[in-house]
Specification:
six-stranded mixed β-sheet; 6 strands; Rossmann fold; 25% strand; alpha/beta
């Protein structure tokens, strides 16, 4: 379990099934837990204000840089819902995906709410953005492959 005041290197990863990048208020933690039948998730956010708000709501969220996770094979999957479109450029997007692939053993889930899909550059999102459900997967693939599967 994450203890306030410690960093990602102090997390007991046996307590967590997944990491949510850009956790913000924790909505994706709850949604991914339900959607994937996952156990506990650990949110990572760069904003101390958002981390404090999520912790106050009883969620496990830590302050950290999603582009520089040092953990390897510590969780079943990594989610990034409404996250990549906030990064400054394609290099940052690739760094976040590489970081997620390193931490996950099974897959990476990247979702974009349909209302935001029109703001995504074609270079930073899959052409598979569709209209099924409130969150549409942009990339969904095996974290153990050298390249990412686009569906």
């Amino acid at each position: 379990m994450y203890q306030a005041g410690t960093g990602l290197d102090q997390v007991d990863w046996d307590d967590y099934d997944f990491i949510d990048l850009g956790a913000s208020s924790g909505g994706s933690l709850k949604a991914c837990s339900t959607a994937f039948g996952a156990g506990r998730g650990l949110g990572v956010d760069l904003s101390p204000r958002k981390v404090a708000k999520s912790r106050a709501a009883g969620l496990d969220v830590v302050h950290g840089d999603a582009l520089r996770l040092a953990e390897t094979d510590v969780v079943r999957f990594v989610s990034a819902v409404d996250f990549l479109e906030h990064l400054p450029n394609l290099d940052a997007v690739e760094s976040a995906i590489d970081s997620a692939a390193q931490a996950a053993t099974d897959f990476i889930y990247i979702g974009i709410h349909r209302s935001r899909a029109s703001t995504i550059s074609p270079r930073s999102a899959s052409s598979s953005i569709g209209t099924n459900g409130p969150v549409t997967p942009a990339i969904y693939g095996s974290a153990t492959t050298a390249k990412y599967s686009i569906v």
